[in-house]
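Cont'd.
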Amino acid sequence: MLKKIYLALCILVVALAIFVLIGGKIKSFGRIFLATTDKKGVSYGDLYTIGEIDAFRFPITGVSSNEKDTIDSAKVIAMGDSFLGIKFGSKVLPNELEDDIKLPVYGVPVTIEDPLKYLESIHYQKGAKKIIIVESVEREVVSRALSYGTPAATASADWSLKKEIDDIDYAIFDMTDVDYFFKHNIFINPVRLFLKNLNFSLLGRMDSRIGAYSLQPPMLFYFEEVNFDKNLHNTELAPKVADNIKKLANTLQQKYNLEMIYVVIPNKYTIYNDLDKQGSYNGFMPRLQTELAKRQINYVDLYSDYMANRNGSQLLYYPNDSHFTPWGKKILADELTKKIKKITGTSKNSSPE
Amino acid sequence: MLFNSVGFIVFFPIVTFLYFTMPHRYRWFLLLAASCYFYMSFVPIYILILFFTIIVDYAAGRLIENAQGKKRKFFLILSIVANVGVLFFFKYFNFFNHNIAHLTGVLGWNYPIKNLAILLPIGLSFHTFQSMSYTIEVFRGRQKSERNIGIFALYVMFYPQLVAGPIERPQNLLHQFYEKHEFNLQRVGSGLQRMLWGFFKKAVIADRLSSFVNQVFNNVYDYKGISLIIATVFFAFQIYCDFSGYSDIALGAAEIMGFKLMQNFDRPYISRSISEFWKRWHISLSSWFRDYVYIPLGGNRVVWWRISLNIMIVFLLSGLWHGANWTYIFWGVLNGIYLVISIWTTSIRKNISAVIGLDKLPKIQKIWQMSATFSLTCFAWIFFRANTLVDAKYIVKNIFTGWSNFLHNINNLTFLKEYILMRQNPTEFVIAILGILFLLSAEWWQTKTTALTTGIAARPWLKTVAYAIILFLIFFLGEFKNQQFIYFQF
């Protein structure tokens, strides 16, 4: 009897392996067996997607946005990371800003690590004065600011044979799709989710990329945010970062006639770390902002705004996502509007045309 | 392709299925193709290095067998130079070049040679040593040269042991490729059990411990005393579970297909002396150095200082084999020193035991010897794991400091989270400790004949249930971050 069970298991394992290989490599076949639990147009947040714990499964509805401006036609250019493109609950920040200031705003649709490298790559030419909003989330600001203006890595030669070899290499050896199909097919996915939730309910364990969480109120924190503050022992970092941001502002002004407004969006953990029992914050944002002020850099003090609003009736960040809510976005849009109006209103001669 | 990846979970059953359904005469070709795929899934182009080694050593084997007198030695040396040359170029060139450049810089000389932008091919030291053992054995007349280059290629490339051993000998492996292996459910079950045990060690213990170890060893200057001790002991178990876990998966996978590979580990942390440790740890490498370096140098049939010198040479090479870094060299030398001192002090230690009466308390003596050996091994692991010798020096200097601070803050939760849990979840710490205890008990239990073990042996379904629980624990408690095995880099 036991022998028969073993044999059946062996056959089942081989059949499953073949099924996963075909499903992963032939997408039209794989899609039929993919477990889809999400409704169209509804997201459950990037942090829920990592943790996949039911206690944090809250729907977030997206809003469609249209980018009708170009970098040349816009009077205000916004570039940064995913915070500029997030359209949960309200329009993307550049569109919202456009409604407020009544000037064309162009949001670069991809994450920009270094504005100088980006402008050089699109051959942006110095012209009439414009405003540029450079945004970075707090956990990335150190590495980004320290890399501003450093030479770009030499791009590998665009050699068609090499590309073909890479394509063949990908088709034959890459297992990313097979890996995804293995985890998300209709047979494995329920078991995987059950084990994850059982793990959480019995041991309080979650994916290691979730650095901390709270249940009352529900809130997930990304591990890079939780560790960011703890790894910043070097108190000289904030002045260094501010120096580089100042250099960036000067270069943008001189080389492209762009007046910079710098935005650092606080980590969710910076604002809500008290929800983590062992949470603390050593104050990188205020330190950085002091240094920015010393160098007369035009920046948005979002940290103070968020700290003032954190206990209000509305949350500033989604519990199951690392990005801000429409309320958090609106606070930033209002601050940016004030800054832009100040620039355009006080110095008419140099205001964007 | 990592053993602990979905790719392997798909690859292995399909290859095994094809292996048993294919006529015997084509099986070697299937295994060779599968091995090529397995290796190429890391960096495809590096298969060319393997082909070079295979062609050189295949030709050397044939030439040595057909030659007479000095010519035999000439072909052997040629093959060794080619193998060591490849190893030197890819693994050691930058290390030596960097150090020469540094030295010439200190002396104020101009040194124009720049480091090369090359990646180290995965498992290079393993398959080079395996291939070299073939030509040496043919030279010694203990192995007939292989006529079929495909079979020889398979000997060098057999995928279960291609990237991290065990480093096989031709006498043990080559003939197995000619034997017909029938599908045997009992053997499949035994192989699967071994693989499961390997996955458990890797996913549940080693990869969990790595979070604690990496946090401390990558930020050593933030830690003192107890944190450094915990991280060092955790690393001792991490590297053991990582490497022996890999070996278990390799042996189990080969066993399922009917191949018997050599044991690579035999519960090394129960060793009562350093020499015993090296008979239990990475056995295939230790025996390689013994057979091909230590014994040809004269082994222990020479005067006492030559024995010591031979030991030091072997351990220096062993350190260098592990990596082109001073930390590995120091680790090797330190182990050599341990062994030399232990040989010199054998009679003194025996006398001390007799004087204090320890020899009359065999159990206590055993525990003392095991603890001392484990402590010395852990001390050596500091150099193996530290990122630089300067880091290692800091650890050694500070490992016994900071105790008053620890005792003062023993009730402070934030302190405990920072310096005992290394910022990890307390549950992870508890699972790590339980995992280590489970490992030690299971290994102890495997060697004992008790009513329980005989009871289980008589009831196969009980064993099945036990392994089903291990399977559940792997999925329930395992860390699946696609972490590479530590020994892949060697």
